[in-house]
Each structure stands twice: as structure tokens, then as C-alpha cells.
Design a protein that fits this description.
The chain is built from 13 helices and no strands. By secondary structure, the protein is mostly helical. The chain has two domains: about 70 residues, no CATH class; about 220 residues, MetI-like fold, CATH 1.10.3720.10.
């Protein structure tokens, strides 16, 4: 296990280097000049020149990249050109918001998707199977923005049970925090649950027809033990992969859902940064998102070994 982790961590170093290079290069393709945006309407040439010197925009691109990488290595992601706040502080402010929303959404998706997928596979051809497939079809075909608006209309406007928008940190009031995030979390988890259900069902159907499952049944083991201990553990590998990728997507920011529910998360931060040509913020957010994806993939590989003993060795 330690050797495996060491090899994977070593592989992350060149991967992060190429990711940072791609992020920096693609950033330069954005239209517009951040110096002109920051200079305002008058656009005094002296002010524009000062801005270029201050943020090293007058330097060649390789030099700008080297300065940026040096800062990243030391934990300095630069400063927002628009609001003059360190990018690291902005990320630390927005990341917990999106992390809480993403965690709740993936938990909802796993409970609904994996549970429905197992039931659908075990009860293949029955009413339970058809109901689970209808649930999956509903989740895949329902637009997030429409579902969000309908939930606000029902639970906030009509029933008055939940707040229509806003966000409260867990440290301030955990009840109000859960009440504010349960609807957007369900909106995000609903679509992911549909995909997880289809993958879980396919994996479970393949495992249930395997020789070792038939052997376990022939030994007289209870059906519940056969399904949960023998079949489900071996069917979880593709589900873990998908869940890790979906969690990474959620952590990168669910733009539409955050806009509908007025949640100040990663999605809103990166959209505002792109529109304002705030290069440092865009680069910092995308780099953190890419690093999160790599870390989640590593955790998924570790989870394979923990869930499936056959992969150890």
C-alpha cells in the first residue's frame, strides 16, 4: 500500500506541472486586456503602463509563468487585480461553501443512486426495477435550473419550510446552514444519482451472474450477506470512479445552481473572474480545481484496494 501511494504521489508532480502550464497558456487566450479593464473608462496611458509593470504584464510570457509558479510553490497564488485581495484568501473563503454543498450533494446521490441501483439489479424485471429506471430517467432528463425553481416555489413560497436563497456557515448555525443548502444539494445530487444508479445496476447485474456469487449461494449464505458482502463490494469499483469524478465537478463549482440559490461559492467566483479578466483569480481557482481532481482520483484508487481485497498485493 505504501509503495503504491508513493508511486502515485510521484506521478502527481509531472502531472501538476503540465496542468499548470496548460492553465497559464489557456489563460492567455482569453479576449481583452486586464490592464485596460482595470484602468477604467479614461484609460490614461501612464496608468495602464503602471498596471502592466505592477502585475508584470509587460514581461514575456515565460517570465510571467516562472514568477507565477514560484508563487504557487510558496503558497502565494497572487492578488486579485479587481478587488486587491490575495487569491488564496478568496479561495479559502469560497471553498468551504462549495465543499459543504458538494458533500451534501454527493451523499444524497450515493444514497439514492447506489441504493436504487442495487434494488433494481436484485429485483430485475419486477416493478421495483421499472421504478428505479423511471427514477434514473427523471434525474437525467430534468434540468437543474427548472428543478431548483420548482423546489423554491414549493418549499419556500408555498409551504415556507425552507429559505429560498442565501447561505449560512455551519459554524454560525448548523440548522440554518442545512436548511439553506438542502434544496441546492438535492438539485445537484438528483442528476448524479441517476447516473450512479445506472452504473450500479450494470455492475451489480454482472457480479450477480459470476461464479463466486453462485458459490456463496450454494453454501447456504443468506441472500442479504451474498448481496452486501460478496456482490456489492466487487461492483463498487466503477461507482467509486464515477463518484470521485462527480465530486470533483461539484467542487469546481455548480454555476447555475449557485446562481439560482444565491450561494457565494466557487462557481460564482470563477464566472465573475473571467468576465473581469482577473487572471490571477482564474488561474488560482482552476489550479485548485485541477489539484482537487487529482487528489480525488488518488483517493479513489485507495478506495478500490480497501473495498476489493483482490486488488491488494
Amino acid at each position: 500500500m505504501l509503495t503504491f501511494l508513493g508511486n502515485r504521489l510521484l506521478q502527481l508532480i509531472p502531472t501538476l506541472f503540465f496542468v499548470s502550464l496548460i492553465i497559464f497558456c489557456l489563460q492567455q487566450l482569453l479576449p481583452g486586456d486586464p490592464a485596460l479593464v482595470m484602468a477604467g473608462e479614461e484609460r490614461d496611458p501612464e496608468v495602464i503602463a503602471q498596471i502592466r509593470r505592477q502585475y508584470r504584464l509587460d514581461q514575456p510570457l515565460p517570465v510571467q509563468y516562472v514568477y507565477w509558479v514560484k508563487g504557487v510553490v510558496t503558497g502565494d497564488l497572487g492578488e486579485s487585480m479587481r478587488i486587491k485581495v490575495p487569491v488564496r484568501d478568496l479561495i479559502l473563503e469560497k471553498l468551504p461553501v462549495t465543499a459543504q454543498l458538494a458533500t451534501m450533494a454527493i451523499v444524497i446521490a450515493l444514497v439514492i443512486g447506489v441504493g436504487a441501483g442495487i434494488i433494481s439489479a436484485v429485483k430485475k424485471g419486477t416493478l421495483w426495477d421499472y421504478a428505479a429506471n423511471v427514477l434514473a430517467l427523471w434525474g437525467i432528463s430534468t434540468p437543474n435550473f427548472w428543478l431548483g425553481i420548482m423546489l423554491i416555489f414549493l418549499f419556500s413560497v408555498k409551504l415556507g419550510w425552507l429559505p429560498a436563497s442565501g447561505f449560512v456557515h455551519l459554524s454560525q448555525d448548523w440548522r440554518a446552514s442545512l436548511a439553506a443548502t438542502i434544496m441546492p444539494a438535492f438539485v445537484l445530487g438528483n442528476a448524479i444519482a441517476a447516473v450512479l444508479m445506472r452504473h450500479t445496476r450494470s455492475a451489480m447485474l454482472a457480479v450477480l451472474d459470476s461464479d463466486y456469487v453462485r458459490t456463496a449461494r450454494a453454501k447456504g449464505l443468506r441472500e442479504r450477506t451474498v448481496i452486501l458482502k460478496h456482490a456489492m463490494r466487487n461492483a463498487l469499483t466503477p461507482v467509486i470512479t464515477l463518484a470521485a469524478l462527480e465530486l470533483g465537478t461539484l467542487l469546481s463549482g455548480a454555476v447555475l445552481t449557485e446562481q439560482i440559490f444565491s450561494i457565494p461559492g466557487f462557481g460564482k467566483l470563477i464566472v465573475d473572474s473571467v468576465f473581469n479578466r482577473d487572471y490571477a483569480v482564474v488561474q488560482g481557482v482552476v489550479l485548485v480545481t485541477a489539484t482537487t481532481y487529482l487528489a480525488l482520483n488518488l483517493l479513489a484508487d485507495v478506495a478500490y484496494i480497501l473495498v476489493n481485497p483482490r486488488l491488494r498485493g
